[in-house]
Amino acid sequence: MDENLLKYGQADFTLPHDVVKLPSGGKFYKSKKKSVKVGYLTASDENLLMGSNPNETIITLVRNKLYEPDIKPDDLLNGDLEAILIFLRNTSFGPEYIINTVDPQTNKVFQATLSLEELDLRVPSVLSDDNGTWTVTLPKSQTQVTLKPLTYGEINEITKQTENYPQNRIAPRITWRLQKQIVSVNGDNTPQTINKFIETMPILDSKFIRRFMDDNEPKIELKRTVLAPSGSKVDVEITFGAEFFRVFFWEPSLPSGRVFCFKSNSQDYLHRLLDNAHILEN
Fold first, then answer.
1. What is the pTM of this model?
2. Of 48, 121, 147, 221, which is most buried with the most CB atoms under 10 A?
3. Which candidate, 240, 197, 183, places its Cα nearest to that of 55?
4. Which residue ranges of the chain lie beneath pLDDT 50?
5. pLDDT in tens, 75-96
6. Short-list 25, 33, 37, 20, CA closest to 87
7. Which residues of 140-162 are buried (b: 16+ CB within 10 A; e: fewer)?
C-alpha cells in the first residue's frame, strides 16, 4: 500500500475531529496520551468501506482518521483501537448495533439490538505499573516474569506469520506470542534468556499468562447477554470489520424507499487479529 496514503489522514490535523478517551489511559505509549484526536467519517470514507478488500479496510480507516503525529495505529492496543472504531461508528451511524444470533431453544435465527453507548470498560483485577507492564510469579515454575500487552501491529505480525507458515506444519503461535509478551525473566531481559525459558515453560504457566493478560489488559467489554424470543439468555459479542460500518445500503432490486439491513456474523480479518489475543484460551 502507498506509504503516502497511510500517512494522509495523520497529516490532516486541522480537519473536524473529536477527542476519544483511550481505555489504556495512555500509560502503554511513549507519549502517555490519555486521549487522541479522531476525525469524523466523510463521503470519501464510504468509498473505502465499499471496497472489495476487507483485510485492510478497517486499519486503513483508522490510519486516515487518527490525527496524532506521534501515535501509529499499529502501535495501539486492542482496547484503544476498538474505542476508536466505536467512536467512528457512533458518530456516523448512531449507537444502535443489530446482531444476528440463534435461539438455543428453537434453533431459529433472531436479531438483537445492542447500544454501543452502553459498553463499559473491563475492570482489571491487577493494574499495570507506570511503564505499562505487570510483574508476576508463575504458578508452576515459580519464575518471576514481566509482561506487556501486545499491540495491533504485533498481533497482525503473528497472524501473517501463521498464514505464511508451511501448511503441513503447526505454526508456533504461542511461542511467537510469548516472545513478544515477556519483557524479562527473573529480571533478565536478554532475548536469549527469554527464548530459552519459553522453550521449557510448563504449559500451566503458559495458560496462566494468557488468562492473566486477558483479565487485565485495558479494553472494552464487548460481550453482552440478550434475551431470545423463547426467553432464553444468549451471550453475544460485538465484532469488528467492514460490516461493523455498513449499516444500511440501498438495494436496487428492492422497491424504492425500502432499506436492506446488511449484517454478517462472519469473523472477518480484523476480528481474527483481535481475537488472536485469546489463542488457545481453553
1. 0.78
2. 147
3. 240
4. 1-9, 248-282
5. 999 999 999 999 999 998 889 9
6. 20
7. eeeeebbbbbbbbebbbbbbeee
